[in-house]
Structures are given as C-alpha cells and as structure tokens.
C-alpha cells in the first residue's frame, strides 16, 4: 500500500507565492500550495478567480510573473483542459485520441478506456460523444500515459448529477490505484469531491483553505443528495475574513476597507477551515474512513 | 503522345499535390484557410523582389511568405486588430505592392497571368527537381512534426502540458507552408494555391476515419485533380491553375453525393494501430 502522506517526500509541485500578470492586471497572486503523490487538491472559486491560471502555472503552461513553481525532475503530467473543442473536420476516434501526445501500447489504451467505461466507444468519433462521454474519454487519455500528476480542469462540467458522482468515484479509484497526485478544479463553490485532501479557495489570491466535511455529517445534504452521493461528495465551508465589494475594494472582517486583499496589505489572514472529524460516518458505506481519520497534515503557516 | 512540357507539368503537379494534401489537412483543422491565402498572395511581392534584385524566384517567394507569416504571428500577439482584419490588410497589400513594383520595372516583361493563375509551360526540368526535392523535405518534416502539430491542433495547452512544443511546431508549419507556396506557384498560380491545399483535404474528410488516413487521401485526391485539370487545360486550352481547381471542385462535389455514403458504424472500419 502506498503511503500517501509521508511527510518527507518531496511534493510533485510546489507553488510558492506565485502570481500571474496579464495586461497590467494580476489574474492571481500570492498562491501557495503543494501537491504530493496520492494527494488530491481541489481549487474552488468564482469565475475569473484564477483557478485555471493557477493550474496551468502548476504544470508549466503559464509562466509565473512572480514567485516560484518547483516541479520534481521529469514530472509527467496528464491534463484535461477546461475547454476542448475538436473541429469536426478532424476525424478523431476515441482510440486515436488516446495517443495524441505520446505513443502507448494497445494494452495501456484498453486499460484506460476500460477504467473509464469507454472501451465500447473506442471506435466512435469524439465529435459524436455526449458531454459526459467526452469527459470520460479525455480522462482516459490523461490517465493512459500514467502521469505523476493529473490536472483536471472542471472534469464534471456538462455531466449530470449521477455522472458527476460516478466521475468522482473514478477519480478516487485512479488515485488509489496509481498513487498519482491530482489537482482538481471544481465548478462548485461548496460541494467538492469527498476524497479531497486540501481545498484551496481562490479569488485572485488564496481566500481560504482547508479540508472538506463529509456530506454524510449533514442530514440536510444527505437528504438532498442521497446516500450514494454522500460517499463521493463533501461540503466545504468557507472561512473568509473579508468580502469582495462590487467596486473591487475589499471589506475585511474587522470592518476596514482596502483597495486589495493581497497579503502584503497587512489585513489578510489565511485561515485554515475548521476540520470536523469527530463524527462517526452514519451511512456505513466505508467511504469516510479516510476523511474522518484525516488530521490536518496540511496545516500551514502563511 | 504528349509533349514534354505536359509530362513535366504532370510530374510537377502531382509532386505538389502530394505535399499539399497533408499540409492542407492542417490548414482545415486549424482553420487557417485565409492565413494560407495571405501567405500565397504575398508571393507576388516575392516575385517582384526576385526580379528587382535578381534573386532566385522560389527562394525569394519562400522568404517573403515566411516573413509575412512571422509578421502575422507577431501582430496577432499584439492583439490590436482581429486576425481576419490583419489578414485582409496583409494579404491585399502584399499583392498590391508586388503588382506596383512590377509595374515600375518597365525593363522586364513578365507574364503576370502566368504567375497569378499558373502556367504549365513554365515548368522546367530544374523546377521538377526542386518540387520533388522540396516536397520530400516537407513530407519528412511533417512526419517528424506530426504528433506535436496534431496535438496542438486539438489543444495547444494540452500539448504543452504534456511535454510537446506547440509554438515550435507552429513556426515550422508556417515555414513548410511558405515552402509549398514557393514551389507550387508556377503550376497553380498565386491566387489559387490555397485551393489546392483546401479542396482535396475537404474532399478527403468524408472518407477518412483518422487524421493520417485523411492526409494520405488528400494527397491522392489532389494528384487526381492535378491530372484531370492538366488534361482539361491541354484539351480546352484553359489556364492550368483554374483547370486544376475546377477538377478538384468536381471531385469535391462528387464526394458530397449521397451515393454509397457509408453509415457511421461502417466508417469506423478497422484502422486501429496508428500511433
């Protein structure tokens, strides 16, 4: 069994105070987090909060304008971008999509397609797939190359609720089987994948971070989502110390207003979200043991 | 049976169609049809400069087309004007500057129609060597660049994230386009080069089940169009370039006919194993 959170291992990727600037404006600034092998980090935040930019910075597609990004030597990334439209003039089957960025053995292709439940669609053209099937095909492509780090930018977009739960199950299995690190971008501000080790909430900077609570701990959510969802989804409660006002200024918890909330202004504190892990899982599905037993290994000083 | 000049034109034309096929597929996939047109139009500026400075025609066309494409990439990055406006400006100004320079050079007589629409009589033995030599170079380069080019066509960030170099692939692709334009100019003419890139590739799409098959089919269809067009050109005494384009169009229209259209499932025939 892989030791997922051995503290002495070097992180796959470590972002230290990174910022990306475009056209004189900071898209995102002051981002700190790291991803270890076997760890799932979820980025959440409103539209335009810099989630995709941060993920791209982590894998080296975007170069940071400040701060450092450290990657382990020869890091092999598997990437599922947020938007990917294959022009219909390009005849591309699911099978051919698998070897888009590198050669693979036939067996590796089959395994990845089987793992994502897409084996029966191997000969289908990607343009004919539904949203959920296409996401599965992209996921299969990304895992087939056996990456160290899997970066999934809103992998559940265009997927219905039960499909979303199934995809999260699948992502969990991939992590458990391969022990790769996963950087997940979620479109939802409050509901994240239950297996997430660290949630980082962005809004042009790190607003807050912490661990999610299992849905099963909240009877309301359980009623809303059902027991099957309870195993895959978790609730993340935000602990922000400031609010972004419509004019771009920032209202802090102490009532003061500043032009920005960048850490350098002296007002901002990165709070660790509260960890709740003294409840017993009440669904009995066994999915919560990891979450329940998880002590805040990621506790940081920022 | 046929005169030497006709055989020469046929050999040269088929050589061009072979490279235009795969390159044209990328032009379609990447939606660069107008981009190719702009590069081709700039070829007349290359012709004018070659006459003015006594340079080799193909070399000077290649250089001008490359410069125009790099200039376009640069202007696109600046992002002041939309790409199609930039293309419109560059395309027609390069063509017009070329025409104006040629008009000033009263001491040279050039066959403008031949340059614009192609002239099968103009193909020499040396041209054939250059076309096939340059064509081989383009094919080998394309095979070498195939994976990064295809991956970055689907998504450049994905290609970069997974260790390919999309920017480099794109730059080389531009240079290959410039090279094909330079060697194809005599046969199909400046104004019609892009159609030899696009029409056979579009015709191939219907029958293709993978990008690789589409590229090969586009080459074969292009060769067929060149042969048909040149025979027509000889028979009816029409300019070679337009005749080839008309033949390519005829093949395209034929491909649109519903006759023998394979169903989705049948078209996913066994073609596994390409990597």
Task: Explain how this protein is built.
- The complex is a heterodimer of chains A (302) and B (275).
- With 302 residues, chain A is α/β, with parallel strands linked by helices.
- Chain A folds into 3 domains: 10-76 and 153-238 and 273-294, Rossmann fold, CATH 3.40.50; 83-146, no CATH class; 239-263, no CATH class.
- Chain A contains 8 helices and 15 strands.
- A 6-stranded mixed sheet of chain A has the order 5-6-7-3-9-10, sandwiched between helices. In chain A, strands 2-1-4 form a 3-stranded antiparallel sheet, covered by helices on one side.
- In chain A, α3 (106-115) packs across α4.
- Chain A is globular.
- In chain A, 48% of the residues are buried.
- Residues 1-7 and 265-302 of chain A have low confidence and may be disordered.
- By secondary structure, chain B is an all-alpha fold.
- Chain B has a single domain (4-257), classed as ABC transporter involved in vitamin B12 uptake, BtuC (Orthogonal Bundle), CATH 1.10.3470.10.
- Chain B has helices at 4-29, 33-41, 43-53, 57-78, 83-104, 112-117, 125-154, 156-161, 166-188, 193-205, 211-236, 240-256, 264-267.
- In chain B, α1 (4-29) packs antiparallel against α9 (166-188).
- The radius of gyration of chain B is 19 Å and the shape is globular.
- The A-B interface holds A 56, 59-61, 76-79, 81, 84, 86-87, 89-93, 95-97, 99-104, 106, 123-125, 128, 145, 151 and B 28-29, 31, 147, 150-151, 153-155, 157-164, 202, 205, 208-211, 213-214, 264, 268, 272-275.
